[in-house]
Amino acid sequence: MKPVLAVEDLTVTIGTRRGPAHAVAGVDWAVRPGETLALVGESGSGKSMSVLAATGLAPRTARVTGRVHLLGMELTGVTEERRRRLRGRHIGFVFQDPMTSLNPVLTVGRQVTEAAEEHLGLTRRAARSRAVELLDMVGIPSAGQRVDAYPHQFSGGMRQRVVIAMALACEPDLLIADEPTTALDVTTQAQIVELVGDLQRRLGTAVVWITHDLGVVAGIADTVAVMYGGRILEQGPVDAVFGTPSHPYTKALLAARPDPAAGSAELVTIAGAPPSPLDLPAGCAFWPRCPVRGDARCEHELPPLVPVSAGHQVRTFYPQPSDGERR
Amino acid sequence: MSEQTINHEGQLRRVLAALRRDPLALTGSLVLVVLVVVGVGGSWLAPSGINEVNVDQMLQPPSWAHPFGTDELGRDVLSRVMVAARVSLQVGLVSVGIALVVGATLGLFAGYYRGWLDNVLMRCMDVLFAFPVLLLAVAIVAVLGPGLVTAMVAIGVVYTPIFARVTRAGVLSVREQVFVRAAVSVGASDLRIMRRHVLPNIAAPLIVQTSLSLAFAILSEAALSFLGLGVQPPDPAWGRMLFDGRGFVTDAWWLGFFPGAAIFLTVLAFNLVGDALRDVLDPRQLTVSEARRSTA
Amino acid sequence: MARFVIRRLLQSAVVLLGVTLVVFLLLQLVPGDPVRVALGTRFDPQTYEALRARAGLDQPLVVQYFDYLRRALTGDLGVSFRSGRPVTAIVLERLPATLSLAVTAVVFAMAVAFPLGIVSAIRSGSLVDHAARVFSQFGVSVPDFWMGIMGILLFSGVLGWLPPSGYVALTEDPGRWASHVALPAATVGLVTASILTRFIRSSMLEVLSEDYVRTAEAKGLRTRVVVLRHVLRNALIPVVTVVAVQLASLLGGVIVIEVLFAWPGIGRLTYDAVAARDYPVLQGAVLLVAALFLLVNLLVDILYARLDPRITVK
């Protein structure tokens, strides 16, 4: 199956006062129709930036290179106007903070169907009934009345439902969810995750789910890409990556995950801090924090992405043998 | 008890460094230095006496002998512009000083004690705020009689409410912070808390407001003296020189140009330094004072 | 909403009461006897006694104030020491000149400031942006009367396009009104425009960095739609206040420009009243201007609440 969205050798360099910041330093990933790709990493790892850049939402000061394909169309080098026509129509976005991602002075109904008015030529009237339909679909009670309410009249979880309705207004082929649950409380998080999964099955939408929450990934993703320092360190089917993690970083992440089943209060953390995008190391970006610390090669030479099993690749000179990692 | 206040030395160094980096602020500071020198030593530095009437030198265009030309009485415009710098600076400093001391005191008490005192004081400030700046100043001067002192008082009164508001807003946010409550809990007296804990922590917005107000105050002084309500002749003031020169302006442009340019440069310098200070000390403050900057 | 309006109305009423007290006390602050001072060399005992009685100066202070307040409420602001005519009439007949100048100046200012402020925010760092920042720094620092004098010098003296001063009523001859209003309105307007430009720019920049603007871009809306519907609407809410405050302060505050251009408005009236020590007229003009100022501010707050749906709930 052809991917909905695929990026090849994508780099994003942002000009800052202290020199160029290499936010994304060459990544490849793809998401197929109906599938969910999880991009995992700490903040600053380039996971959000790679998606924003691929869809033309990178900040103005960013320089983007590489190839991007949407539904088989080449997006590299096309005009911003063309990219704009695809955004919203074929790709819907859900951002992190529902408190700030809605315009405070427009009714939610208006905001939900704006994209449909723009791309599908819906009249204001048709848009309104469509808005009610969409709000109903994402589980907002008495949508017929709430459609004329303003964002501040909704709770955080309800607002995120509005944002999801908004993203799905044109029934896009792809939904990009950028840490959509981070700003919500735990119960609401679960509801939102469930809602997106539900809608995905009903509408056949592909999803790119950007998160640092491995618990969510295990539950919903088909494939996963672990990012660090602007590069992918490990990617593959979620069972393979979680079942036999082969990069020391992935292993450390999984070990650092709080395990309610084990009931241990002990929280394992990874010592050190991620590299600054202003000053990426020449070799493996994880080397300064790596528990394995192979040899000088790791410090000075960038390890290639090598396959360990079908569709499962890892960027290290020292792939970790499986040691019966818990799943 | 630890005295948790701003690290003043670090702050000062930060301000100086920022001013050095910003070419506009540097230019502004330089202009101010020149201005102070001229203001203090104007009468010694001036090439000729300010009231030397010279009938056969009337309305001479700029020349080597008179770089800014001469006025309708043959007086040297450059000398008069130089000597008038003192008046502008004096009125600016004294009136903003009045506004700062009175306004900050009122704002401090209002914000610290809250309650009815706050209500009464701030409603009084609202009343003063309800008059356009220059109109109120004109009315006050009209009642007290024109002159240097009344101009200072009038401008001081007019700019008091803005200092009261800025101070009060600062006090309200500082009041609730841990170190103030700690000081209260160990039984420090109100005055001591205000002086040692509250004031130092609201210094930044007050410094910014002071430097921007100096610009407005000098503009207001110029306007008052343009209306004949400031310093009385024959003492020179920039605004008055403009007023006197306005009848000759089509024949003798220098009479209107140079005094006005002096006002402009002075106000510009204070604004540039004020903006730079705000960028360093208080970047989010863009409020009513901006909106009321109009000199009208 | 109704409660908000009522609360603001009450607040304004209290402040207005304070304003009348200040205006009333102005006269008491005059050193010596205001009527004697006003009459000066024209002093004669009969006029003196008549004016004192008319101004109520023979009563105790408190009685005087309540009397003043009561008459002010019915529109009676006393009589001019100079002409003996009612102050209310004198002040009101000057209103059209001031109004036409203030409105023209603000319209001019908006015509300059909106495009400049918006473009300089959207194209932050561009040539337009730099020009806008230089312009606004110039405008807030320049004395308006100096710019007016330079304007007269250029457009009237050198080019001979516009009359140097004077006034023609709009109702009398719109063409000549326009040629007379051009210079003073442009002078006042440029200062106002620079303040507005600065404010619009910073307000726009703040909104442009909001998450919901990125949301709008993510929907694939046209840039025009994003700017007009999402950015401008939010950015202009605070700007409305600034425009109104500017307008209000121009209504009473353009004394210097009205004097310079011989424009017979409220400002000029104030100036003449000060020169002639005609205190009742001064009081009347100041009171009217402050009342207008309060009224505009009240209307703005209500408009603000209408524009920003969040306020009604708070």
UniProtKB/TrEMBL annotation, chain A:
Q: Is Nucleotide-binding one of the keywords UniProt gives this record?
A: yes
Q: Where in the cell is it found?
A: Cell membrane
Primary localization? membrane
This protein's UniProt keywords: ATP-binding, Cell membrane, Membrane, Nucleotide-binding, Transport
The UniProt entry's GO CC annotations, sorted and at most eight, read: plasma membrane
Return the InterPro entries for the record.
AAA+_ATPase, ABC_Ni/Peptide_Import, ABC_transporter-like_ATP-bd, ABC_transporter-like_CS, Oligopep_ABC_C, P-loop_NTPase
Q: For this UniProt entry, which residues form the secretion signal?
A: none
Give start and end of each ABC transporter domain.
Answer: 5-254
Q: Which GO terms describe its biological process?
A: peptide transport
Kindly give the membrane topology term recorded for this protein. Peripheral membrane protein
Highest rank taxon of the organism: Bacteria
Matching entries from Gene3D superfamilies are given as: P-loop containing nucleotide triphosphate hydrolases
GO molecular-function term, one example from the UniProt record: ATP binding
Query: Which spans of this chain does the record mark as coiled coil?
Result: none
What is the similarity comment for this entry? Belongs to the ABC transporter superfamily.
Q: What's the protein name?
A: Peptide ABC transporter ATP-binding protein
Q: Which organism is it from?
A: Micromonospora sediminimaris
Q: What is the lineage of its organism?
A: Bacteria, Bacillati, Actinomycetota, Actinomycetes, Micromonosporales
Automatic annotation (TrEMBL), chain B:
Q: Which GO terms describe its cellular component?
A: plasma membrane
**Compartment annotation:** Cell membrane
Gene3D superfamilies (alphabetical): MetI-like
Segments spanning the bilayer are 23-46, 87-113, 120-142, 202-232, 252-274
Tell me which PROSITE patterns the record gives.
Answer: ABC_TM1
Q: How does it sit in the membrane?
A: Multi-pass membrane protein
* All residue ranges annotated as the ABC transmembrane type-1 domain in the record: 85-274
Q: Name one GO biological process term.
A: transmembrane transport
What PANTHER family does the annotation carry? D,D-DIPEPTIDE TRANSPORT SYSTEM PERMEASE PROTEIN DDPC-RELATED (PTHR43386:SF1), OLIGOPEPTIDE TRANSPORT SYSTEM PERMEASE PROTEIN APPC (PTHR43386)
Q: What is this protein called?
A: ABC transporter permease
From TrEMBL, chain C:
Gene Ontology process terms (BP)? transmembrane transport
Per the record, membrane topology reads: Multi-pass membrane protein
Q: Which PROSITE patterns match?
A: ABC_TM1 (PS50928)
In terms of CDD domains, this protein maps to:
TM_PBP2
Which stretches are transmembrane? 101-122, 134-161, 181-200, 235-261, 281-304
> Where does this polypeptide localize?
Cell membrane
- Matching SUPFAM superfamilies, A to Z? MetI-like
Keywords attached to this Swiss-Prot or TrEMBL record, sorted alphabetically, are:
Cell membrane, Membrane, Transmembrane, Transmembrane helix, Transport
Which PANTHER family does this entry report, sorted A to Z? DIPEPTIDE TRANSPORT SYSTEM PERMEASE PROTEIN DPPB-RELATED (PTHR43163)
What's the family? Belongs to the binding-protein-dependent transport system permease family.
Write down what this protein is called: Peptide ABC transporter permease
Instruction: Specify the species.
Output: Micromonospora sediminimaris
